[in-house]
Amino acid sequence: MARRDADTGVEGDMTPMIDCVFLLLIFFMCATKFRMPEGALSSWLPRDRGTGGDGPPSANPGCRISFQREGNQIICWADDVTVPFATDYADDTVGSSQQDFDIEFQLQAPDMRAVQEHIQNRKDTYRGVNAKGLPVIIDFAPNVPSRYVVDIVNICKRLQIADVAFAAPEEAMD
């Protein structure tokens, strides 16, 4: 790529200069080590809550509903209290046709009315620091039909509980 200067009539070849610039650019790109600072994470964490030991522990932590499937039984715990199995499906207002579901899949399932009563009692007696009210944590095994989890979410909606969370699944032990 030759260039002709109009004033002096001298031609200058720009190719060697461009080659040198590119070689220098490649050299510095290869010689430079990009290193992330260790231990520095860019994150925006909430300042009003956390795991710090500054404040007193909550006296009333909330309600935890857990489901586990063992064979054809769905076992439910409401705050470490075992929920009885459903025997009377009369006036089934908690779930939508729980009896039909349990019969179709041959399951012996917990009484969702008992779970609703437990959550209602916990809501009525909750005196925690959470601004949203009683926190409900739903913990369920992967082999539990999602119908029961949806029933708990519906119960919380019906009882006007805004703080509903799902527990992280437990890691399988090898």
* Overall pLDDT level: 78
The major sheet is characterized as: 5 strands, mixed
How many distinct beta strands?
7
Number of helices: 4
Low-confidence stretches: none
How far apart lie the N and C ends?
67 Å
Describe the structure in your own words.
- With 174 residues, the protein is α/β, with parallel strands linked by helices.
- The chain has a domain at 63-166.
- Helices cover 29% and strands 17% of the residues.
- The protein is built from four helices and seven strands.
- Strands 5-4-3-6-7 form a five-stranded mixed beta sheet, with helices on one face. A two-stranded antiparallel ribbon has the order 1-2.
- The longest helix is centred in the first third of the chain and has 17 residues, at 15-31.
- It is elongated.
- The mean pLDDT is 78.
List the helices and strands and how they pair.
Blueprint: E1 2-4, E2 11-13, H1 15-31, E3 63-70, E4 73-78, E5 81-82, H2 98-104, H3 112-125, E6 136-140, H4 146-158, E7 164-166
Parallel strand pairs: 3-6, 6-7
Antiparallel strand pairs: 1-2, 3-4, 4-5
List keywords for this structure.
174 residues, alpha/beta, 4 helices
Short overview:
This protein is of the alpha/beta class and 174 residues long. It has 4 helices and 7 strands, in the order ββαβββααβαβ. The chain has helices at 15-31, 98-104, 112-125, 146-158, and strands at 2-4, 11-13, 63-70, 73-78, 81-82, 136-140, 164-166.
